[in-house]
């Protein structure tokens, strides 16, 4: 009687490796193979008489590194019929030894071991390439430098980009591959290189948190590599469209076209994710859980557009002659101490006009007279009915330069904010230029040019001019960013300096930042102000991000006649507050704090500090707090600043709601006293009534007159 148990002594295995290996393999024989290579293995079990086994049997397949084309075999085993079995082994992603073990599950005996030695081929000659930022929707930050990212910029390896909770980025690689960076994502460019020959390109990304959608070109030829590292996993792309997400649950990969390989960072095991599959590798490693989907790449892009991303060819727009067009509008009711005003406007928008890089929006205002009930075209300009500016915003972007004419609602910071930080202009449009001179070298200018009215003509240029030159140097271990900022004031304050010479008219700053890791980025900045004297100050500290948390800690030296962030924040509002306080002119219906008179004896040399931290919980919550102080006894310090944003998604019949609160308290003493006469604060609540239709309520406290400016608006809105 023939013995058919697998543990019988007379049995032996014949293993034939069809791809890359010729002939039968002995148990002790080691095979050299390149990484991430599929090796079909034909398994034939015979008895002691060298005759095929009959019947069915399950054997266990174990791998020390690498993976199987069918990952289910790792958990359920390989079914053998009449002694014949087949599986496909995927060699590991990294060099070194790897072993396959074929085990009898009944006895635990290793029937055969197959050993591989993985050798990394000599990499081809490559050259560094940049990544083009083709679109920024909302707010995104680049490190090193902690500055806002702009469309048209070119990014180099070593930088990190962070998309805010409601913001999107579109990146384009040198071969045309597209990467959509979704809200709340932190992404580092590790390596972006092109092969000197036609093959051998390399793209390595580090997805710290968040989610990416990638529509890539072919990365299967030669030694080309597209790698995405996440906390706990490595992914290798061979597909044309896929998505990767990092959350508290782990790393999830979704393939829409082609195939991905997902490597567990703990065990080194590889798991394929083919077209139509989703795989979630849990935090801490293990075997991923698989599920299926029926989405195509085009369907997923449509979904992303519905969630807020607008590509250049968004289907939400009407197109004509290479252009894209949308119509929106708003109605706003403003009230101040019992006096209200109602304004309405239509806002047609034109994108990529006639296929060019120009986009612009118009604003057609209508005023409503509450006493007569009449609606008239135009708005009040210096007491006269006029057309208003008509031009709402203008944008031009390409790889070399950019032009943006619009309100500055998100804070603009040059350097680290010692001279100009978080500058906003929410009530007056500003003109912003940018020029990409070369790899890593960027020049930009902020000008106060603003069209207040076409008829009668009214052009405003009375505010600050700011210019910045920035250069980034990258190496394998360290990234250095150097910057130079110059600011000059062109407002009416300059005419008062003969009477009150303590107002600063110019400022100059130099800064340097080092990107060591995402969590540790030391920096320093020195700045000078020109008033009746020259005053200078210096700040040195460290900032960074770790997961959902961010921080900044710095020490300061403030010389005689120097005040930090003199030109930052709501500088235009502060200028008006100064004029009101001096009783030269003024309308009390604005928030602000008078500018510092730097020749005041209180501005003696001092030391101080700045401490700030923030936390983000996905797309739902964002909180930032900062505290800065010194040993001067002026009307500003200590200063407490905070900002809270909350976004709740639509849930059944309950609409999506966004709310926010921000404040800046001077001479802060205790939380129980907030808000007081030294606090400038604002809050808002916004409800999405339907897709693109929003109702919003805003309330701004004006401490100068202890009053509130309230706004209620209804808008049909789109993303610019």
Structure notes:
It is a single chain. This protein folds into four domains: 107 residues, Immunoglobulin-like (Sandwich); 182 residues, Jelly Rolls (Sandwich); 59 residues, no CATH class; 191 residues, Porin. A hairpin with a 6-residue loop joins strand 19 and strand 20. With 720 residues, it is mainly beta. It is elongated. The strands form five sheets. The protein has a 23-stranded mixed sheet that branches. The chain has a 20-stranded antiparallel beta barrel. A five-stranded mixed sheet has the order 3-10-9-5-7.
| Unreliable residue stretches | 1-28, 311-322
Mean pLDDT, to the nearest integer, reads 82
- Tell me what portion of residues adopts beta-strand conformation: over 45%
> Using DSSP, what is the number of strands?
55
Number of domains: 4
- The CATH class of the largest domain is Mainly Beta
Q: Helix count? A: 3
Helix content: under 10%
Rg for CA atoms? 32 Å
CATH topology of the largest domain: Porin
What structural category do the secondary elements indicate? mainly beta
Shape: elongated
Main sheet properties? 23 strands, mixed
CATH architecture descriptor name of the largest domain: Beta Barrel
Termini Cα gap: 81 Å
């Amino acid at each position: 009687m023939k013995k058919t148990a697998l543990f019988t002594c007379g049995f032996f295995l014949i293993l034939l490796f069809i791809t890359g290996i010729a002939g039968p393999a002995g148990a002790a024989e080691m095979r050299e193979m390149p990484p991430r290579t599929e090796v079909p293995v034909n398994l034939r079990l015979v008895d002691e008489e060298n005759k095929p086994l009959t019947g069915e049997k399950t054997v266990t397949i174990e791998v020390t590194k690498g993976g199987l084309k069918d990952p289910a075999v790792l958990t359920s085993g390989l079914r053998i019929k009449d002694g014949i079995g087949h599986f496909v082994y995927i060699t590991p992603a990294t060099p070194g030894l790897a072993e396959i073990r074929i085990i009898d599950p009944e006895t635990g005996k290793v029937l055969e071991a197959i050993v591989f030695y993985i050798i990394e081929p000599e990499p081809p000659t490559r050259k560094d390439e940049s990544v083009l930022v083709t679109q920024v929707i909302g707010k995104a930050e680049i490190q090193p430098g902690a500055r806002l990212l702009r469309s048209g910029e070119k990014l180099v390896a070593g930088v990190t980009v962070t998309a805010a909770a409601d913001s999107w980025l579109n990146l384009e690689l040198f071969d045309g591959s597209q990467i959509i960076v979704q809200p709340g994502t932190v992404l580092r460019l590790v390596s972006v290189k092109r092969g000197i020959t036609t093959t051998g390109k390399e793209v390595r990304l580090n997805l710290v948190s968040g989610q990416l959608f990638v529509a890539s070109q072919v990365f299967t030829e030669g030694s080309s590599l597209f790698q995405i590292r996440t906390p706990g996993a490595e992914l290798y792309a061979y597909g044309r469209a896929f998505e990767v997400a990092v959350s508290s649950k782990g790393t999830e990969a979704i393939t829409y076209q082609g195939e991905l390989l997902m490597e567990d960072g703990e065990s080194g095991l590889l798991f394929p994710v083919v077209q139509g599959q989703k795989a979630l590798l849990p935090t801490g490693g293990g075997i991923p859980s698989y599920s299926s989907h029926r989405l195509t790449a085009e369907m997923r892009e449509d979904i992303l557009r519905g969630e807020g991303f607008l590509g250049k060819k968004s289907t939400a727009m009407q197109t004509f002659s290479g252009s894209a067009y949308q119509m929106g509008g708003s109605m706003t009711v403003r009230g101040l101490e019992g006096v209200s005003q109602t304004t309405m406007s239509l806002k047609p928008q034109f994108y990529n006009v006639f296929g060019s890089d120009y986009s612009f929006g118009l604003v057609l205002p209508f005023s409503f007279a509450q006493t007569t009930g009449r609606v008239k075209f135009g708005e009040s300009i210096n007491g006269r009915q006029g057309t208003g500016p008509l031009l709402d915003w203008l944008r031009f972007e390409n790889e070399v330069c950019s032009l943006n004419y619009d309100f500055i609602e998100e804070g603009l910071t040059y350097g680290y904010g010692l001279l100009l930080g978080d500058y906003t202009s929410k009530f007056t449009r500003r003109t912003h230029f940018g020029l990409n001179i070369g790899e890593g070298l960027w020049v930009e200018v902020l000008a106060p040019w603003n069209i207040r009215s076409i008829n009668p003509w009214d052009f405003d240029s009375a505010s600050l001019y700011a210019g910045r030159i920035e250069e980034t140097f990258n190496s394998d271990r360290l990234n250095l960013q150097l910057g130079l900022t110059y600011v000059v004031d062109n407002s009416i304050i300059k005419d008062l300096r003969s009477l009150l010479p303590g107002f600063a008219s110019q400022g100059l700053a130099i800064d340097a930042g080092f990107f060591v890791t995402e969590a540790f980025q030391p920096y320093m900045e020195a700045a000078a102000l020109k008033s009746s004297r020259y005053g200078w100050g210096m700040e040195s500290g460290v900032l960074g991000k770790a997961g959902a948390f961010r921080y900044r800690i710095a020490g300061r030296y403030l010389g005689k006649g120097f005040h930090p962030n003199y030109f930052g924040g709501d500088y235009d509002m502060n200028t008006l507050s100064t004029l009101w306080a001096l009783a030269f002119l003024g309308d009390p219906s604005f928030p602000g704090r008078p500018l510092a008179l730097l020749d005041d004896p209180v501005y003696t040399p001092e030391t101080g500090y700045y401490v700030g931290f923030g936390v983000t919980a996905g797309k739902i919550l964002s909180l930032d707090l900062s505290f800065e102080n010194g040993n001067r006894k002026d009307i500003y310090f200590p200063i407490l600043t905070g900002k809270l944003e909350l976004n709740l998604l639509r849930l059944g019949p309950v609409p999506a709601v966004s709310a926010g609160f921000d404040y800046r308290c001077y001479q802060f003493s205790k939380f129980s006293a907030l808000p007081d006469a030294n606090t400038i604060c604002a809050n808002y609540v916004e409800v999405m009534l339907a897709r693109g239709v929003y109702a919003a309520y805003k309330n701004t406290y004006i401490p100068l007159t202890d009053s509130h400016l309230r706004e209620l608006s209804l808008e049909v809105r789109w993303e610019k």
